[in-house]
Amino acid sequence: MLNFVQTRLNPDWYHGKGKRAPFFEGWYYKLVTRDEQRAFAIIPGVFVAASTKETHAFIQVLDGTNGQARYHRIGSFAAADKTFDVTVGRSRFTRDCLLLDHEDEHGALSGELHFHDLTPFPVTLTSPGIMGWYGWIPFMECNHGIVSMDHTIRGSLTLYGETVDFTGGRGYIEKDWGTNFPSAYVWMQTNHFNTPNMSLSASIATIPNLGRTFNGFIVALLYNGQIYRFATYNRSKVDKLRIDEQTVEWVLFNREYELVITAQRAEGAPLKGPEKQAMHMRVDETLQASIHLRLSALDGFRRTLIVEDTGRNAGLEVVGEVERLLI
């Protein structure tokens, strides 16, 4: 019980201690160079299956510039008990740094990055992270956490023979854990707006609940040092969600604010995602989308613009039977 409480109040920690199969946990590092010419996602994690053959650790690399993804299956995994400190093979991952040291038939990964001026998502007893009070529910199919909404990077990585200098670039860190990914979801993220230190993370998904499903969403917009939340758990509503081959249009509101999002889709690459038996769910992700947003304060029928901007180098995933999400 104590371990459950501690891990829920520290979403970035490893949650798999003592868990039975199926279980997965993965951390997502988004990395963009200072000149914004290169963008990568580095995803370390572990998958625990009923079959020992399918149980393994991994490092997944998405090159958002050329749309290529590679999956490195790795034998060893270790995690500290009371901090975010994960080792996959010889590579190490924490909230403050990333150290790559791996080579296999898919290529070689090496180098070290350090992260500064992190913007962690607030955690309280009543709202332990981005999931709000849902974070206390022990049987959620997929749990989500945000480690840092925005930070600077120092260091370089050598990926498949190419050395990329990330010094002065910007990063973002999040994570997921549970039994498998939702059957249908939309996820988007960018922290490359013209407005400094602004970041958006947003997702909507089908959520199983006692034999039925509902559409749950969590949206966080960091602007001017404040996080604006739109989520199922704080009684926000989706006024509109439309998806086609080119765009995702999403309008949300609560008693105080309205958020209008228009994401321009871009070609991505297939990543592996967890299902209950194996890591083989196809997840198409791009790091070349753009996201235009408009945040307004509401006073009856009156809207007062707070900020309007367009984010670049945006991550975007549209997965599964998303028709079930549309409003």
General description of the model:
This protein is mostly beta strands and 327 residues long. It has one domain. Helix content is 2%, strand content 61%. It contains 1 helix and 22 strands. It has one helix spanning 2-8; strands spanning 23-32, 39-48, 56-63, 68-74, 77-79, 85-88, 91-94, 97-104, 107-116, 142-159, 162-165, 170-178, 184-190, 199-209, 212-223, 226-231, 237-243, 247-253, 257-264, 269-274, 279-299, 302-320. The strands form 2 sheets. Strands 1, 2, 3, 4, 5, 6, 7, 8, 9, 10, 11 and 12 form a 12-stranded antiparallel β-sheet that branches. The radius of gyration is 19 Å and the shape is globular. The model has no long low-confidence stretch (mean pLDDT 95).
Determine the structural class based on helices, strands and strand pairing.
mainly beta
Question: pLDDT below 50 for ≥5 consecutive residues: which ranges?
Answer: none
Radius of gyration: 19 Å
Average pLDDT, to the nearest integer? 95
- How many alpha or pi helices? 1
Domain count: 1
Q: In total, how many beta strands?
A: 22
Described by strand count, sense and barrel closure, the largest sheet is: 12 strands, antiparallel
* Helix percentage: under 10%
Through-space gap between termini: 39 Å
Gross geometry: globular
Could you tell me the strand content as a percent range? over 45%
**What's the order of the H and E elements?**
HEEEEEEEEEEEEEEEEEEEEEE
Assembly form of the protein = single chain
